[in-house]
Amino acid sequence: MMLRYTGGVLFVVLLLSSSVVHSRLILDDLIRLPFDHSSVVDRVFGRGNDIDDHSVGTRWAVLIAGSNGYWNYRHQSDVCHAYQVLKKGGLKDENIIVFMYDDIAYDIENPRPGVVINSPYGHDVYAGVPKDYTGEDVTVNNFLAAVLGNKTAITGGSGKVVDSGPNDHIFIFYTDHGGPGVLGMPTYPNLYADELIDTLKKKHACGTYKSLVFYVEACESGSIFEGLLPEGLDIYATTASNSVESSWGTYCPDQDPTVPLEYDTCLGDLYSVSWIEDSERHNLLTESLKQQYELVKTRTATSPFYGSHVMQFGDTELKQDLLYLYMGTNPANENFTYVDDNSLHPSSSKSVNQRDADLIHFWNKFRNAPEGSPRKFQAQKQFTEVMSHRVHLDDSIKLVGKLLFGIEKGLYVLQTVRPTGQPLVDDWNCLKTMVRTFEKHCGSLSQYGMKHMRSIANICNAGITADQMAEASAQACPNFPSGPWSSVHRGFSA
Ligand SMILES: *[C@@H]1O[C@H](CO)[C@@H](O)[C@H](O)[C@H]1NC(C)=O
Ligand SMILES: *[C@@H]1O[C@H](CO)[C@@H](O)[C@H](O)[C@H]1NC(C)=O
């Protein structure tokens, strides 16, 4: 009760302060009109560094880490680091909305309690990060409501939403596991591409932004926008990977000699640290979205053995915009003008497939634990459970395919990839129904099982009915699996 009351007061204070800011903006705009020309010149040539240049409207940001668990350290650390860059860029806390489970900094496994780093020699990025939506409040519902600016639809959390106006610029950054057509969340259900795109269309219809930039790190993240995000919404999106490949964790133990020995989890993600480290270093009045896209694309795909194809979607003419419009710029970087390639510092760090990063953690935990200790036993148990649930999921989905389409054709249908530019599935409700049906019989898809979303989508695309799917799933999984990785105690993922 006490907590609720305090939350209410905070809420009122936020409301008050945001209306004060708005009236000041209007005033400033009027006064500044005659100087528009000089502010453009300043922006182009990087001479001015006026963070309070309101001619660009208010900058809003939504940052979201879709995972929890210490083995997923890197997603929350990406988000915290992104916050620090935006904060230094001049965005105000009232305009930055952070979604993170917040179980990393004080996890018993964290060698530096209360500290989160996003690179081997990085500084703490945790201090000061607003805890708008944490724990069980990190939900699809709250995320979409926050983007839309719909306060009444929010449950729990700080109540902060993107309360934007027509001249404002919005930046959204999502990082986590994903799969074809879906982005993971630390709570169920997951975020499906159709709901995300619908929300963006609604936001556009409200006329409450000038332009919106969306950066997404997740496996198969291209599938979130491919064939789904129309042009004309004033949205420019880039994704860590195309629709058919994994994205990559980086600064991982074993892979990278510079990661401090006490860390047995990856510290960042390749696409995420690429843009964050670039933005952190430069005068963003001198760098365009396009330049950052090219640079991130190169760094994310440098090795023939790992890495992914960074993609762009939506209104690509927006990429002429300067990063400053969305991220502000750190006055301390005033003299660090962006020139092509000047932040591609070659890194010795190899990268790890998102889907194997948890294995790396459990494996390192196992290897480093003293012989015969409870810790060693626990790590071994975790490793075995993860592995066996993976095998179970892979086998079950294959068997479902064979039962539905025959031994010969089964795998072929499941693995079909639609031509470039087509969405993953036509009927999203079918996809969600099929996911629930599969999970009812075979256990949770879990983080790893999101990779099978394409197979399930193809089952819909082939016109299979829910009854046929239920029958095949029941046959493929006569026993409901046990163990934390297979349980549906969190509910269905769709
Ligand atoms: C905001 O959310 C509430 C509750 O979900 C809903 O009834 C209302 O229509 C939403 N408003 C807008 C503008 O979307
Ligand atoms: C950038 O360079 C100018 C000219 O040398 C100098 O006056 C200014 O202090 C520098 N800015 C910063 C943030 O170091």
Automatic annotation (TrEMBL):
It comes from Chenopodium quinoa (Quinoa). This is Legumain prodomain domain-containing protein. The active site is at residues 177, 219. The gene is LOC110684536. GO terms for biological process: proteolysis involved in protein catabolic process; vacuolar protein processing. PANTHER family: HEMOGLOBINASE FAMILY MEMBER, VACUOLAR-PROCESSING ENZYME GAMMA-ISOZYME. Keywords: Disulfide bond, Glycoprotein, Hydrolase, Protease, Signal, Thiol protease. GO terms for molecular function: cysteine-type endopeptidase activity. Belongs to the peptidase C13 family. GO terms for cellular component: vacuole. Residues 1-23 form the signal peptide. Residues 381-477 form the Legumain prodomain domain.
